[in-house]
Each structure stands twice: as C-alpha cells, then as structure tokens.
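pasting for ref. prot 1 ->
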Amino acid sequence: MTTLVNRAPQETRGNWKTYAALAAFMVISAFPVYWMFVIATSTDEKVMGFPPTVIPGDQLLVNLGEVFGMQNVYFTASLINSVIVAGVVTATTLFFCSLAGFAFAKLRFRYRNALMFVVILTLTVPNQLGVVALYILMARLDWNGTLLAVIAPGLVTAFGVFYMRQFISHAIPDELIEAARIDGALTLRIYWTVVLPAIRPALAVLGLLTFVATWNDFQWPLITLGGTDFPTSMVALSDLASGNYVIYRRVLAGAFAATVPLVILLLIGGRQIVRGIMEGALK
C-alpha cells in the first residue's frame, strides 16, 4: 500500500552565480544615482578633473544653496508645483481608475466590452500625436501657463483603468458583490466598503507608477509652462542645464533634490508595492 506523505514546500535557493548576477545588476542600476550624488557634492575642479573622482565631496549644501538661491529658476516653487501636480494627478487617477475598473469588471451594462476595447486601443496612440490638439483645447479654456493645464490631462489613464479592471476581476468574487446587494448596499456603497479595501495593494502599485510618471513628465509641462516663472521641477532642471556654460554640479544637485521625494515615497510605500506586485503575479 502506498503511503502519501504531505511535505512542506522546500525553499528554493540560488547558487553563487545567481547572487553575483543580481549584485552586478544592482550595482549597474544604482551607479547613475551614486554618480549624480558624487557630482552634486563636488566642486568645479573635481567635476572637470581627470581621472574623474568617484568619492563624494563635502559641497552638497553649498551646491543646493546655489540652486535654491538662483533668481531666474525658482527651484523651490518648482518642487512645490511638482508635488501639487503629482499628488493631485495620483489621487484622481486612483479614484477614477478604480471606479471605472470596478464598473468594467463587475457591472453589467450595454457595450461594456466595446468600451473596454476602445480604452485599451488608446494605449497604442503615442501622447505626442495629441499635443497640438491638447494645447489648442487648453488655450480655449484659458488654462495654458497654469497648473490646471498639467493636471487635467492626467486625471485618468487608460492603463490605470485596464490594470484596475484586471485586478478587481480576479481579486473580488461576484458572490461578494451579490451578497452586498442582498444586504441593501447600493453600487457606490459596494465600491467604497467592499472593493476599495480589497484592492489596496493594487492602488499602491498604480499610485507609485502614476506619481513617478507625473513627477518625471517633461514634454507637456515644458510646452504649457515653459515660459512661466513657476514651472515643474523637470522644466526647472532644463533651465539649470541651459546656457552657453553649464555648471554640472548645480544641475546634478538639483536632480538630487528632485529625486529625494521619489525615494521617500518608495521607502514609505515599498511594502504595499511589493505586496501588490506579488498578489498580481499569484493571481
């Protein structure tokens, strides 16, 4: 008689080659950030010296003081604008995309699949093709040169709708929605009390991707805010790098200051982000 023994799954461990490859990729990926920090903490002599220095200096506060003290860049206001734009766009994207994803995943209405196909189809259209029409629309609304022109186009994204629709379809069973309806909950109540708590990991992932993409956006803010005194941080960095003579320690000191909020966001929400990615992979 054959005896079946339940064995716990064994943990898979990589060999030294796997860890060596991971370490090499980590060093290669982190080196540009480290080099940015080295230049941001150096003087002009060390930046232009040969061979180049690879050891951080002690001029970070001096270089940052020059960046934030420049009269023609207004870097502090630019960082504040980036925080406002990225924060508002992230919040609205999470709300509208999760609401639309819930509708496409769990609600039954006419032409649902056709509308979802149109949403996915918009992902194939490059953003550059709509810049002229978007600029004309913002001009008619008299929003060009204001933060509204940067915020409005990013209130909802096709990728966010598709991502939330896929996650909600697998994470929330239809029986749970029906049970809430039997208890007398309306659609918005089901969305708020049943759907949102279950999709927090997915919201964390989408929120990080949206915040980073909005923070690093350069083309559209340059077009609509490029002549104003208070652009976003990426446009301000381009102003630092403009001119006949570029002071690289200032440019990279500004880039370092613009990177700090993204690092803080990753440290705060890193656990939720990893959890959301792993849950999506398992499903």
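and prot 2 ->
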Amino acid sequence: MPPKAKFTKTEIIEAALNIVRTDGYEALTSRALGIYLGSSARPIFTVFKNMEEVQQAMIEAARALYKEYVHKGLTAAHPFKGVGTQYILFSVNESKLFQLLFMTEQKQIPDLSGVLPLIDESYEQILLSIQDDYKICMSSAKKLYHHLWIYTHGIASLCATKMCRFTDEEISTMISEVCMSILKKVKEEENHD
C-alpha cells in the first residue's frame, strides 16, 4: 500500500509557484520545496514521480495564471489593447513567471509567424478580437498583432527585468500611438489591394 500523501498536488504546485515567483525557476529544487512546505522532500514524491513532473505542473499553473490576465484584457473596451496592457501588467506583477514563460531560450527558434501561437494559447481569440474591433482582414490583423507584440514584449521585458518603470498612463499612450500608426498603415495597404 503506497504511503498517504502529506500534501496535496495543489499545495505542492502552489509552493513551487511561490518559490519561482520569489527566487526564479533555478531555485525550484526538491530541497527548496521541502523547506518551503516545512518538511523533507520525500512527501513531494508520494504525489509526483520526479522534479520534472513538479516543474511541468508549475509551468502549467503559471500559464493558467497568465491566461487569466489575457481573459481580463479581452473584456476591455478595446480587447487587443487590453491584452497588451495585461501582458505588461503580468510582467510587472509576476516578473519571474513572465521571465520563465516569455524570456526563456527556446530549443528550436520559431519564425515570427510561429512564435505567437506557440507562446499564447489565446492567439486565435486575440486575432479575432483585432479583426472585429478594427474591421480589418485576417492578414492585416496578423501584421498588427506581430508588430504590437514585439513592441509590448519590449516594454514587458524592460519591466520584468526592472530595467525601466512606466506609469499606467505612459503604457496606455505608447500602446495607442504605435497601434494607431500601424493600423493606419495596414488599412492603407488593404485599400490598395
């Protein structure tokens, strides 16, 4: 008969998430997890097979938390701007999780058209919000999304690494100005086709 679990899966994942939030992904070890839970590492392995399984569960929990930010952004008056703002807010509020999810070196380097669907499972939903809100075709929506993601990723990376701080008003103005100028360009291109 297997030993009774001292901690639930949820408790272990939450502890792992909190360790990464505070000290970064490299700090997530079985020993650190045991200390955080006030135990040895042994009880962790009555629930998980190994640390890789714990790490994967923690990354999934971080993605779920990020997805909450995206969904909040999608409910804004202008959903695309809302998502961009929430992306930056996630980098400010959860800098270590942002770095883990969006600033970790990839094994294979995707091209620009492949990176967004790879890192954001809400990609299609965001694209549809762009088409709907700005009344543009799918290819123009993709172009706008790609440009704005590069721009907001730059701001978010500056925030996540504490290289720079922006007010909410500065972020809103910067996103609006860049979005409107690119939107004007893609609409001109649509009208020429």
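The mean pLDDT is 92.
The first helix runs from residue 9 to 23.
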